[in-house]
Amino acid sequence: MQTPSQAVSLELYPSTDTDDARSGGITQVESVQKIVRFDLKEEGNHVLAVNISYTETMTTQSLDTHGVVQASGGRVRTFRKLYQFIAQPCLNVRTKATELPPHEVDNRTLGPYGKTKLYRFALEAQLENVGDGIITLGMQTITLNPRPPFKSRSLNWDFDPSEAQKGNSPTLSPRDVLQIAFLVEQEHGQQDGLENLQKDMNREGRTTLGQLSLEWRGALGDRGFLTTGNLMTKKR
């Protein structure tokens, strides 16, 4: 597979258990099917080059009384097929992070009435189907992977467990837009990443919340996935 940035060798997988167990050649009117798998991660022109080499067995009629057909040799043949296609994005993602009033918790290290403020943010994302086909988002395939010391909670269709059990996954037709949201909160008592958070907020007035991961299925069941870069808050 030739992508815009590199050439990758792909492994062939059998389409059925019969193909996997097959050994030797194939006779007339028989066929062999193989599957290649490749995750598209780049936009632009792609070329799948398939090289096939085989030996064409030549047979002769035996001169004995039994008339047995025997192999007398073969010719090696090779041919190449090229399949060219353009990879385009299926989903466009736009995000916005809004700082919420902090949550105050007791902190006895600051005195008997000491309080510590924990940061809270609302992360909104707008998903637009920019492809040509219908896509279906899974019930639990849109996740926010928070960066410590943050934790996240989905405010989407899986927010209500009773609704999530119904399995009503959202479907987007071409040019449809879906709004999703997450509540991102600083986890109380979490020391991992706390120092970096304080430095980022004091120095730059903003910090990194995490990465958004999405998965979907196309009309024919083909799977797509997307992971954003690090999502930043607005500067204060």
Automatic annotation (TrEMBL):
Matching InterPro entries: TRAPPC13, TRAPPC13_M, TRAPPC13_N
Record-annotated Trafficking protein particle complex subunit 13 N-terminal domain positions: 1-86
Region listing for Disordered, in residue ranges: 1-24
Top-level division of the source organism's lineage: Eukaryota
One Gene Ontology CC term in the entry: TRAPPIII protein complex
Coiled coil (residue ranges): none
Boundaries of every Trafficking protein particle complex subunit 13 middle domain copy: 121-232
Protein name stated in the entry: DUF974 domain protein
